[in-house]
What we know:
- The structure holds 3 protein chains of 3 kinds.
- Chain A is an alpha+beta fold.
- Helix content of chain A is 32%, strand content 20%.
- In chain A, strand 7 and strand 8 form a beta hairpin.
- Chain C is mainly α.
- Chain C is flat, with a radius of gyration of 24 Å.
- The relative contact order of chain C is 0.14.
- Chains A and C meet through helix 2, strand 11, helix 8 and helix 15 of A and helix 2, helix 4, helix 6, helix 7 and helix 9 of C.
Amino acid sequence: xxxxxxxxxxxxxxxxxxxxxxxxxxxxxxxxxxxxxxxxxxxxxxxxxxxxxxxxxxxxxxxxxxxxxxxxxxxxxxxxxxxxxxxxxxxxxxxxxxxxxxxxxxxxxxxxxxxxxxxxxxxxxxxxxxxxxxxxxxxxxxxxxxxxxxxxxxxxxxxxxxxxxxxxxxxxxxxxxxxxxxxxxxxxxxxxxxxxxxxxxxxxxxxxxxxxxxxxxxxxxxxxxxxxxxxxxxxxxxxxxxxxxxxxxxxxxxxxxxxxxxxxxxxxxxxxxxxxxxxxxxxxxxxxxxxxxxxxxxxxxxxxxxxxxxxxxxxxxxxxxxxxxxxxxxxxxxxxxxxxxxxxxxxxxxxxxxxxxxxxxxxxxxxxxxxxxxxxxxxxxxxxxxxxxxxxxxxxxxxxxxxxxxxxxxxxxxxxxxxxxxxxxxxxxxxxxxxxxxxxxxxxxxxxxxxxxxxxxxxxxxxxxxxxxxxxxxxxxxxxxxxxxxxxxxxxxxxxxxxxxxxxxxxxxxxxxxxxxxxxxxxxxxxxxxxxxxxxxxxxxxxxxxxxxxxxxxxxxxxxxxxxxx
Amino acid sequence: xxxxxxxxxxxxxxxxxxxxxxxxxxxxxxxxxxxxxxxxxxxxxxxxxxxxxxxxxxxxxxxxxxxxxxxxxxxxxxxxxxxxxxxxxxxxxxxxxxxxxxxxxxxxxxxxxxxxxxxxxxxxxxxxxxxxxxxxxxxxxxxxxxxxxxxxxxxxxxxxxxxxxxxxxxxxxxxxxxxxxxxxxxxxxxxxxxxxxxxxxxxxxxxxxxxxxxxxxxxxxxxxxxxxxxxxxxxxxxxxxxxxxxxxxxxxxxxxxxxxxxxxxxxxxxxxxxxxxxxxxxxxxxxxxxxxxxxxxxxxxxxxxxxxxxxxxxxxxxxxxxxxxxxxxxxxxxxxxxxxxxxxxxxxxxxxxxxxxxxxxxxxxxxxxxxxxxxxxxxxxxxxxxxxxxxxxxxxxxxxxxxxxxxxxxxxxxxxxxxxxxxxxxxxxxxxxxxxxxxxxxxxxxxxxxxxxxxxxx
Amino acid sequence: xxxxxxxxxxxxxxxxxxxxxxxxxxxxxxxxxxxxxxxxxxxxxxxxxxxxxxxxxxxxxxxxxxxxxxxxxxxxxxxxxxxxxxxxxxxxxxxxxxxxxxxxxxxxxxxxxxxxxxxxxxxxxxxxxxxxxxxxxxxxxxxxxxxxxxxxxxxxxxxxxxxxxxxxxxxxxxxxxxxxxxxxxxxxxxxxxxxxxxxxxxxxxxxxxxxxxxxxxxxxxxxxxxxxxxxxxxxxxxxxxxxxxxxxxxxxxxxxxxxxxxxxxxxxxxxxxxxxxxxxxxxxxxxxxxxxxxxxxxxxxxxxxxxxxx
Lengths: 566, 458, 310
C-alpha cells in the first residue's frame, strides 16, 4: 500500500506543505477561541450536569440518573414509572409505604374502612411547601380533577372504586357528585361502590395525591409543567428541573416527618436510557445506583460491585388471541403451545438474569393471600412441559382446523429482551411442533395499536400491578376488562371475579382468585413466561433505599449515607 | 480556357498504409478496464468485493450451520472456547435432597458440597446449616470474592434447616465461586465460599439431535464428546456467528450496494439534468430536492413499511430500500449539479457544442465522465453510510426483522457485551470494515480509471 | 444579489409548506395514536383526549387549523408533555443540538480539509496512508459503536488518572462536548477528507494552476488562492446539508451521552406518536435545512465567480 511514486511529487505545488501548516495553525487557534465561546453559550442553555460524584456525605447529596424525562408532574395525569417515582418523593397521599413496604400514616393521622365507606382524619398543622395548610379539601379537589372529563386522565380508572367516578368521567354526572366529602378541614369521607378492602393502599397511589386548589389555579393551566408550577407536601421538593437534563430534589423543610429524612439533596443529574452508558457513569463514580441487564452482569462481577436483587412486581406472559377468527381460538392448539412452554428454560437460558422467576400463574408470588402469601396458600397446579403431549394436541388441532401446517404471528416490542424471547419461541415451536411462527416486531405505539385491534395470534405482554391486591391481576381476563386484549372470555372467570369483588372477606376473595388462577391455566388464557426481577448495583455507602413492587421505585426518600470506612 | 474539363483532374491516391493504427483502438470502457487490471490495489479490492458477494450468495447454503439454529447450551462462546462436552442424564427435578444430618459447629454455614456432576445443566449444593440461622442467601461469582461482595444473588432460603440449593441459571463451563451466607437470629450475616468447576454438558438426545454423534451412539453419561467448531464463535442464542455473518452479508450488501447504486444514479440523472438545463427549471428541480432532503426519514420509513404492508415474518428490507432510494438521492443530485454548473462553463463544452454535439451526448461523453470522480467518491461513501443507516435503524429497533441478521444489527447486539464477549462485536465490525475498505480502494481505482481529468495528468 | 436572495427565501417558504403538508399526511397514515398506552384507555377518556387536541375533527379541518397556526409560528402543545408547548421544547433543545453540531461540523470541516489537503500533497506517502487508514476506521465503524467505545475509554482514562479528565456523560460544559462532538463529526470528517483529497488531485493539474505558475505567481499563493480555494468547493456543497443533519440528527450520540438535544426528542416523538413535536420539529428542521442550502448556494457563488446566480 505504501508504494512511493515519483508522480506524486510532481503533483504538488512547492511550498504548499508549509502554507498548509500555517493554515492549520490558524485553524487551531480559531478552534480554541470558538470552543471557549461555545462553552459560554452552552452554559446559557440552562443545563448543568457537572456533579460532585455519586455520594457526598458532607452535604448529604446523592447523584442518580433518570431513564427518561418525566412528561409532567401533575399527579392526576401521571402515567409513567419515572413520574410516579419522583412524585413519590415530593408528594404524599393519605397513607404511604415505609421502607419495608408496610402502609403507614401519611397525611392521614387515623382512618377507618368499612365495606363501602372510608373515613380519614388528617394530621393537623401540616403545610404545603409554600406554607399553605394541607386540608381535606386538597384531596377532594385533586380527586375530582382526576375524574373530570376535561382532565382526561388516563389513570382515572384507578378512582372508579369511588361512587360516581366512572359516570363523571363519561360525562353523565357532574364532578361534584364524586363520592368524597371534606366533612371539615381535617376529615375526609369516601363512599365506595363495592367492598374494596385494598382501598387504603390505593390512597398511596400518585393519582390519589392531594393538590392545593389555590396554587393549582394560580398556575393557569401549567400545573406540573415546571418546578415552580408545583407545590409539594412530601419529604422533598423539586429545587431545579431543567427539562431533559436534570431534576434536583431538596429536603422539604415543611414536611411533617422531616427528621426522618436524612438526605439533603437527591440530584437526578443525568437523563440517560442506554444501559451501558448508565453503567459507565456508575463505574466512573458519577451515580450511586445503576440497573444491570444480563449483558452487564459479568462486568459487575469482575469489578466486585455490590449486586442486589429486586422483584419489580410485573408478570410476563404470552397473551393469546381468543377471537373466533383466529387459529389460536382452537383449544387443542393452545394446549399444544402450553405443553411446549418451558418457563424455567426461558428464565435459565434465555433471560439469564437471576431474580426472574419462571412463570406459573397470572398471580405473582409476592401477592398477599389470606394470612401469608397467596401463592403459598393456593399453589397453582403445576404445568409440565411435555413435547409428546404437545404433538398430540397439535395433531388434533390440525385435524380440527383441517390444515396441514399452522403459521402463527407473534407480536412483540422492539427491545432486545423481546427480540431474544420471540426468536427463542420461533425456534422452539418449529423444532417441537413444526409450527411456523412469524415475528411481528413493532415499536411502542404501533404494537399497542395492534394489540388493541386484536391484530395478532400471540403477543409478548406483561402486567404491572396498580395496587397491592390480587384483584389488579385477577380481573385482567374478565370479559369487561379493556386490557384483556386477546378477548379471552370465560363466564366462570367473570363469575369468580364478581364474587371476589363483592366480598370483603379475605378467605372468600382468595378462594375465588385461586379458581381464576386454575381456570386461566386450564383454558390456556395465556402462556406463562416469567415474573420479572431485576439486578442493580448500589454505592456501598448508600443505605435505606426502598425497592418495591407497588409504589414509587426506587425510593430514596428515607435513605442515608454511611460514613466511609464504617 | 475552355479546355480545362473534368478530365484534366486526376483522382488523388489515398495512402492507406499511413493511416494504419499500430494498436487496436480503445473505447472509453476498454481503457478503463485496462487501467483497473493493471492497478494491483484496485484489482485486489475488486476481488474482495466479488468475494464478499459470493460469500453472501453461496456461503449460507454450503456452511454446516444454519443462521437460525439455536443452541442454548453454547451461548456467546468465543471461537477459542473448549469444545468438549460431557454427556449427562436429561434433567429431572432434584427430589432426593439430602436430609440435615449434622449442623455447622460455628455460626457460618460449613462444608459446601456438590451433589452430582456440576455441569451447565445444574449445580446442586448442600452444606451444613447453622442452628441459629433465619435465612440463607446463595451467591455466585466469577472472580475470587476474597473479602469483597459475594457476587450475584441467586436465591434466598428461609428456615434454619435449609441445606440445599440448585442453581440452573445461565451456567457456563468455567470456575464459579459459590457462597452461602446465613443471617442469624441476632441479625448478623456470615458466609462461606467455595470454588466449583462447572463442566460443559449435553444430553445424549440433544447430541443426537444436533448431529454431534451418530443416532445409534452408545455414549454413557460421564463420557465426553467434541462439538463442531464455530470459527467465529456463537451469539447470545448460541447461533453460529459465521453463518449469521454470511446471512447478514446478504442483507447488508444488498441494502449497502443496491440502494446507493439506485439513489446515486437517480441523483446523477436528476442533478446533471438540472445543472445542464439551468435557469427556472434548475431552480424548481433544486427546490424539490430541498423538499425531499427535509422529509423526516424515520417517519417515512415507518410509512413505507405500512404502504408495503410488511407483514409479520418478513425481513422488512424492501421498504427500507424504497425509503432510502426515495429520500437519499438529493445529496448526489446537488453534488453533480454543482459540478455540472462548473463544467458547463469550460471551453471544451462550448467547443463541442459548436461542433454540433447533441445535448445527451454532451452530457454523457463530456459532463458525466468529468464528474465521475465526485460520483464515485460519494458512491463509495454511500455504501458504508447506507450500511450504517440500517444499523442505526437496528439501534432504535426498526431494522431488519429477527431472526434475520444484518451486520449492523449484529454490531448493535455485540456492542452491549463488548467488555465480556468482544467477539460478538469485533467480527461483524471487521466484516463491515473490510467491505468498506474494499469499496473505498475500488472507488479510488475506478476514479483514476474513469475520470477524464485524472488521465490527463499522467 | 439581494433580489436573488429574496426570491430564494420565498421559494424556501413554499418548500417548507410542502414539507409540512407531506409530513402531516404521512403522520396521520401511520397507525397508533398518541393516547394509546400500556393500560387500556376507556372510550370516554379517549374521546376527551381527542377532543382536547382537536383530533376528533376531520383530517382536512385539522390540516387547516395546523396551517393557520403554523403561519403564526405556533405548533401547539406537546402530546406527551401536555403542559408544555412544542415551541418551548424546540427552543430548549435546539441550542443544545446546535452547539454540539457546530463543534462537530468544525471538527469535520477543519479535519476534512486539512487531512484531505495533506493526503493529496503526500499522495501515496506515509501521511496519506496513515490518514486514509484512520479515515477508513472512521467510516467503517457505526457511530453507536464509536460512542460506546469512546465512553468506555473515558471511564478507563478517568480511572487511571484518578480524577475526571472529561465527564462520561451529561451536558453543560466544553468538557461534556468534546468526545460526543468528535464522534458525531467523525463520519462527515472522513467523507470530507476523501472528497477534499480527490478534488485537490484534480485541481492541481488544472490549466489555471499551470497558467498561474507559469506567469510567476508565487507558489504559496497559487496553492492558497487557486488550488485550495477551488478544491474546497465540493466540500462546501456537501457541508450544507450535513450541517443541518448533524445539528439536528445526533440521536445516537445524544442518547448514549445523555445530551438533551433535538435528535433524541424527535426519535422519541416518532416512537410515541407525539404529533405536535413531530410536526414542529420537522417544519423547524426543514426550514433550517432550506436556509442552509440557500446560504451554501450564496457562498458557492462568492467563492467561485464562475458560478452565476440565476
